[in-house]
Specification:
single chain; 258 residues; mainly alpha
Length: 258
């Protein structure tokens, strides 16, 4: 069965991570503090001064914080599905070692998704705690926003893994981050409403998983009305996860099995 063997993949990743978790945890705390202090408080004071009515009726810190939570989960998911997968297939060949055991390709992909989800969850929970520390929202509300962040992170893990598994060299991965991940980070509603984008670009932003996660997270943390019905956004993100994971199995099997 795939599930027990997938947990073996998770176990192997956890054994490696226990040697490096300290630096990871420090950066996971430091990054949201710096982001919110510099952009939410620093830049936000200028935005609030020039927009007395706020951004969609919110202070810039309150508008920004839930969006950055989900955007950080998105970047974490993309990294887990990008460079790590490239290393496992091409550079370090750790996936070949795993497949030399009874673990099969479906279990390998499932275990990779599960561990990557755990990493996204860790980063998101820490960010939620920082949001509460900045008094944007109570801790319980901030932690509830981890749900959409996890869905977005998993969607990016799945999609990026499916893309990376088809690449022969890192050049394509660099282009993917430069022309897909970074623009998504900047223009999917994290820093400003997508209504400020050119009309032709708004449907593109609407189609990104990050936009749906940001809208859900912002609704939970500060009580805004999401632009898309919440259950539609949830189903959309689940579809990204399922389709991405399904599309990753084929190229994994093609490249890693004789």
């Amino acid at each position: 069965m795939a599930t027990p063997l997938a947990f073996r993949v998770v176990e192997s990743e956890a054994r490696v991570y226990r040697r490096t978790w300290r630096s990871s945890v420090v950066s996971s705390f430091l990054n949201p503090i710096l982001y919110l202090a510099a952009m939410g408080v620093g830049l936000g004071s200028l935005v609030d001064e020039n927009l007395p009515s706020g951004v969609e009726g919110l202070s810039y810190l309150a508008f920004l914080a839930p969006g950055l939570l989900v955007a950080t989960a998105m970047q974490t998911g993309a990294a887990e599905g990008g460079w790590k997968v490239m290393a496992g297939i091409k550079w370090l060949k750790t996936y070949d070692a795993k497949l030399a055991t009874p673990i099969g390709v479906p279990s390998l992909v499932a275990g990779h998704m599960m561990w990557s989800g755990a990493r996204v969850l860790m980063v998101s929970v820490i960010f939620a705690m920082v949001i509460a520390a900045f008094r944007v929202a109570p801790l319980v509300q901030s932690l509830l926003a981890v749900g959409p962040a996890l869905l977005v992170g998993l969607a990016m893990v799945a999609a990026t893994t499916a893309i990376t598994a088809r690449l022969e060299d890192p050049t394509g991965l660099q282009l993917y981050f430069r022309f897909a991940v970074i623009p998504m980070f900047l223009f999917s509603g994290t820093f400003f409403p997508i209504t400020q984008l050119p009309v032709w670009l708004q449907p593109v932003a609407l189609a990104t998983p990050l936009f749906h996660g940001v809208e859900l997270s912002r609704a939970i943390v500060v009580g805004t009305d999401p632009a898309v019905t919440w259950w539609v956004s949830v189903l959309y993100l689940v579809a990204w996860i399922a389709i991405g994971a399904f599309l990753a199995v084929g190229p994994f099997r093609k490249r890693l099995t004789p």
